Amino acid sequence: MLTLCTALAGLLLVLPLLGNLLFPYWWQDLVISLSIVHKGYRRLRRLERHPPLSLLDTFLEKVRSHPEKALLLFGEQVYTYRDIDRRSSQAARVLRDSVGLREGDSVAVFLLNVPAYLWVWMGLAKIGCAMACLNSNIRAKSLLHALGACGATVLLTTPDFKAAIEDVLPSLQEKGIRVFYLSAESPTSGVEPLQGQIDAASEEPIPVAFRANITSKSTALYIFTSGTTGLPKAAIITHRRMCSMATMLCVSGVSAEDVIYTPLPLYHSSALLLGVGGCLEVGATCVLRPKFSVSQFWDDCRRYHVSVIQYVGEVMRYLCNVPKRENERDHTVRLAVGNGMRVEVWKEFLQRFGPIRICEFYGATEGNTGFVNYTGKIGAVGRANFIQKMLAPFELIRYNVERDEPVRDERGYCIRVPPGEAGLLVVKITKSAPFNGYAGDRQKSEKKVLRDVVKKGDLYFNSGDLLMVDHEGFIYFQDRVGDTFRWKGENVATTEVETTLAGVRFIQEVNVYGVPVPGHEGKAGMAAIRLKEGMVFDGETLYAHAKDFLPNYAIPRFVRLQDALEVTGTFKQCKGQLVKEGFNPALIKDPLFFLDESKTCFMPMSPQIYSSILDMKLKL
C-alpha cells in the first residue's frame, strides 16, 4: 500500500512536468480561454438588458466609482472621468437641442487627435447617435464619398480643416449636410461655431430616454477602411462589436492602475476602440498624442509614467531606427499591444528597450473574429485553440493569388491548407460571430462573404489575408490579397490611387501595386504608367497632383514607365509579376523614377539611389 501511495505521489509530481514538456502552452491556453469566455458571457448579459448596458454605461459606471481619476492626459491638460462626463453632456445637449439631432442619426467627425474626440463620442452616444470617424487625411472626392456612405447629416470638425471643408462645402450644402466647427469662432462663411454654446450648456446628466430604443445591434460607429473597391468603406460597428473590441486591453492583462499611451490616429479602431475604449472598459488612464513622434516617444513615457503602449509595426521600426541612447531602458513600460511588427524589429526592440511583454494581435475592423498572441511567441499573431474554434470557427483555405480566388475541389468546396502552409483566413458567419458589413452599398458587403466553403449553404467572412498555422498552433500573418497593401500603418486601396493618378494629363493608363522594401513594414506604393501618345513624363506635375489629391501614405514612392500594361483575359491588370520585379534598376529595363520629397519631384532612379534605399540612408 505504501508503495502504491508513493508511486501515485510521484506521478502527481511528474504529470505537471510531463504536461509542460508535451503541451508547453496548455496552462496559458486554458487561462486566456476561460477569461475570454467569462468576459464574453458577462458582456452578452449586459447587452441583453433593456435598454442594453453599452460602453457608454461602462464609462458612466467608472465616473461614479472614481470621478476624480485622470481619464485623459493631453500635453499639459488633464481630464478626469467627471470632466469628460460633464463635457459630453454639454455637447449632447447642444447637439440635440440646437443642432436638432435625434436618436439614430449619423454624425461624422473630422478631427485630429484632440480631447474633443472623446467627449463628442460620449456625447453622441448619450443621445443615441452613431459617430462616423473620418480619416483626417481624406479630401475632395473621398471625403464626399465617405459622408455619403455613412448617411451623415451633420459634420463636426475644426478650423484645422478649413481648406478641406471649403473645397467641398458647396457640394455638402447641396446634399443637405450641415457643417459645424468645434471652435469659438468660424473662419468660414456657412459654417457655424459651436464651442460657445457648448461652454454655456448645462452639465446635468442626459436622460436615458434620449437613447431608449438603442439595442446591441444598433450602429454605434462607422470606421472607414480601404478595400479593393477603391474609395473608403464604412464598416458598421454595432454596440455589441464595440464592447467586444474594447475588452482587448483587459484580455491582454491591462488593469485600472495602468497608464496607456496612444500615439495612433483615433479614426482607426486600434486607437479609438482598443486604446481609448479599452481604458473606459477597465477604468485606466489614457495619454493621447496629437500624432506619433519618434523623438518624443520615450520622453512622454517617462513624463506620464506610462505602463502600456499601443503600436503598429511602423512605430516599433521607427523607435529601433533612432540612434541608441544611454537612458532608453529608463522607463516604466511593461506591456506593448498592437499589430504588424516584423520578427527582426520585435527582437531588436526587446534587446534595446528591455523585457517589455509584446501582445501582438490580428483583427480586421469589419471582421468577425481576431487573434491575440498572449504567449509572447516572437512573430506570431495568436494561437489556434479549441475555444477560439468553438466561438468563431475559422479555416485557412488554399488561395490562387494570380486568379485572386480560393481553390476549390471537385465538389466545389474550399480546400484546407495543412500546418506550415499559408492560406486565406475565412471565418464562419454565425449568430455569435456576425458580419455586419459596410454602410452605403450592399455589394461591398457581399464581396466579403464566401459561400459553400466547407459544406453547402455555409457563409464565411473573407478576411482578404493570408495566414499560416505552424505545428504548435501558432498563427502568423503572411500577406494581403487583392488590390490593397499596407504602408505607414495605413491600408492603401490601389484602385483609388489609380483613379486619382489617371487625371494627370500625360497618363493614358496606370497600374498601382505595393512592393516590399528591405527594412520597412508593409509595401511601398509603385505605379506602372503608360503615357499618352506623343507625351513625355513630367515628374514635377505628377508630384504636385499626387500631393493635392492623395494622403501622403498613398502616394506611390516609385514609378515605372511601360509601353503597354499587361492585363488578364478578363481585362484585370496583372500585378503579381510587377510586384516580384520590384524597383531594381539593374533588373528592370523600363525607365524608373523615385519620389524625391526634397526636390518635390519624381526623379530618375539610379543604382546609387537604389543602394541608398536598401541601406536605409534614404528616407521613404
From TrEMBL:
<feature type="domain" description="AMP-dependent synthetase/ligase">
    <location>
        <begin position="61"/>
        <end position="382"/>
    </location>
</feature>
<dbReference type="Pfam" id="PF13193">
    <property type="entry name" value="AMP-binding_C"/>
</dbReference>
<dbReference type="GO" id="GO:0008206">
    <property type="term" value="P:bile acid metabolic process"/>
</dbReference>
<keyword id="KW-0812">Transmembrane</keyword>
<keyword id="KW-0547">Nucleotide-binding</keyword>
<keyword id="KW-1133">Transmembrane helix</keyword>
<keyword id="KW-0813">Transport</keyword>
<comment type="similarity">
    <text>Belongs to the ATP-dependent AMP-binding enzyme family.</text>
</comment>
<dbReference type="GO" id="GO:0000166">
    <property type="term" value="F:nucleotide binding"/>
</dbReference>
<dbReference type="InterPro" id="IPR042099">
    <property type="entry name" value="ANL_N_sf"/>
</dbReference>
<dbReference type="GO" id="GO:0005789">
    <property type="term" value="C:endoplasmic reticulum membrane"/>
</dbReference>
<dbReference type="InterPro" id="IPR020845">
    <property type="entry name" value="AMP-binding_CS"/>
</dbReference>
<dbReference type="InterPro" id="IPR025110">
    <property type="entry name" value="AMP-bd_C"/>
</dbReference>
<keyword id="KW-0443">Lipid metabolism</keyword>
<keyword id="KW-0472">Membrane</keyword>
<dbReference type="GO" id="GO:0005886">
    <property type="term" value="C:plasma membrane"/>
</dbReference>
<keyword id="KW-0436">Ligase</keyword>
<keyword id="KW-0276">Fatty acid metabolism</keyword>
<dbReference type="InterPro" id="IPR000873">
    <property type="entry name" value="AMP-dep_synth/lig_dom"/>
</dbReference>
<dbReference type="Pfam" id="PF00501">
    <property type="entry name" value="AMP-binding"/>
</dbReference>
<keyword id="KW-1003">Cell membrane</keyword>
<dbReference type="GO" id="GO:0004467">
    <property type="term" value="F:long-chain fatty acid-CoA ligase activity"/>
</dbReference>
<dbReference type="InterPro" id="IPR045851">
    <property type="entry name" value="AMP-bd_C_sf"/>
</dbReference>
<dbReference type="GO" id="GO:0005324">
    <property type="term" value="F:long-chain fatty acid transmembrane transporter activity"/>
</dbReference>
<protein>
    <recommendedName>
        <fullName>long-chain-fatty-acid--CoA ligase</fullName>
        <ecNumber>6.2.1.3</ecNumber>
    </recommendedName>
</protein>
<feature type="domain" description="AMP-binding enzyme C-terminal">
    <location>
        <begin position="496"/>
        <end position="572"/>
    </location>
</feature>
<dbReference type="GO" id="GO:0044539">
    <property type="term" value="P:long-chain fatty acid import into cell"/>
</dbReference>
<keyword id="KW-0445">Lipid transport</keyword>
